[in-house]
Amino acid sequence: MLFTIFYYTLTVILYVVSLPFLIYKSFNPKYKIAIPAKFFLKSNKPFEENKIWFHCCSFGEVRAIKPILDRFDKQELNLSVITDTGYNQAKEYGIETRFLPFEIFLPFWIKKQKALVVVEAELWYTLFLVAKRKGAKTILINARISDASYPKYKKTAFLYKQIFANIDKIYAQSELDKQRLIELGAKNVEVIGNIKLTNLPKVTKVLDKPNATVITVASSHDTEEETVLKAYDTSMGKLIIVPRHPQRFDSVYELIKSYSIPKNFSYARYSQSGNFESDVTLVDCMGELINIYAISDVVILCGSFVPHLGGHNPIEPAFFGCKIISGETIFNQKSLFESVNGYTLIKADDLENVLKNIDNLSNSKLDNIGTIEPIVTELI
After folding, report:
1. Model-level pTM?
2. Structural domain boundaries of the chain?
3. What is the mean pLDDT of residues 285-308?
4. What's the topology of domain 2-191?
5. Angle at the Cα of 136 (from 160 to 80), degrees rounded to 5?
6. Which of the residues 81, 99, 260, 375 has the least number of beta carbons within 10 Å of its own beta carbon?
7. Matching CATH topology for 2-191 and 214-366?
8. Contacts of 27 (CB under 8 A, 6+ apart)
9. CA distances from 228 to 33, 304, 325, 363 (A)
């Protein structure tokens, strides 16, 4: 009781001190919905009672739980998030969605639910405390504690002991995560693997593979195609370029043309050729990337050679055992890369040398594929 009073008082003080900053940031178009909803409860009424309430942080976690959500009637579910990207993705599911309010509001905002299911590291003390006291079964899923985070958790172990006291069941990603969670005070921990690896890619069309090494440039952004074209030579194999955004198809084709003509490369648009026999092929249509991964030997995973983008999903090419090359900027995909063995992170300047030595690269493979069945069973 004393800890709860202390913690709540601290969060109130933090809120009051932060008010000028929050008001200022709320005028930023990027935060015009999220900040008023989370910190001032604007258009953010409580959920209806007696449903299964899922809480995620952002886009990746919202996507990861979709196979679980699909096992229930949408009318049975509530879903809360922290970020704008998570909110936008959640709204696509047709499930009642809210931004999770700041902790000082939770004692008044939370209504009785059948269960609260929290994904990964969203360990808010007041969230679990209030939900449990109002009758919800409290569950933490896909729980993990990375090597980098573990020392920080240990320094504040007293706080996590209080948090875990209000969590009824924990589904961890690995035995190491289970051990670390128990050391921090968790109870009733079960290992089921990484649930982000349950929604694996499916081939929708079998494509003909050229009689050569196939190098796919996946989800490329501005400047990244040029980085690859500068490094590429036909001795390396066939090059397939799949831009991230369709509005760039024409400009990327002109770029390919400008590099191919002086070097005597053959080049084509996939929409016109229907095959990958040219030296360089632009995939100027949507929905083919998974099918192309299935015939690829090497995947250059883009969004990672541009500082602010944070990389793209490595799970899909790893599922097909491709040799994965990525830039070093992967902060948005870090947890997914931790589930992949055999990938290469490089600087853009090193790409040519790496491509010349493709045979020395390891094939990727997925590690720690999870299952959602124990979670679904717990909630039924």
Report:
1. 0.74
2. 2-191, 214-366
3. 94
4. Rossmann fold (3.40.50)
5. 75
6. 260
7. yes
8. none
9. 39, 13, 11, 20
Q: What mean pLDDT comes out for the span 19-38? A: 91
What does the pLDDT look like over 214-224, one tens digit per residue?
999 999 999 99
Superfamily of domain 214-366 in CATH is Glycogen Phosphorylase B; (3.40.50.2000)
CA distance 300 to 322: 10
Of the candidates 147, 143, 155, 146, the one whose C-alpha atom is nearest the C-alpha of residue 188 is 143
Pairing of strands 365-366, 115-119: unpaired
Q: What is the pLDDT of residue 199?
A: 77
Place of tokens 């081939």: 203
Cα–Cα distance list, 86 to 33, 101, 105, 347 (Å):
13, 14, 21, 30
**Calpha distance 177→180 (Å, rounded):** 5
Is residue 4 helix, strand or coil? helix
8 Å CB contact between 137 and 114: yes
**Tens digits of residue pLDDT in 143-156:** 988 877 889 999 99
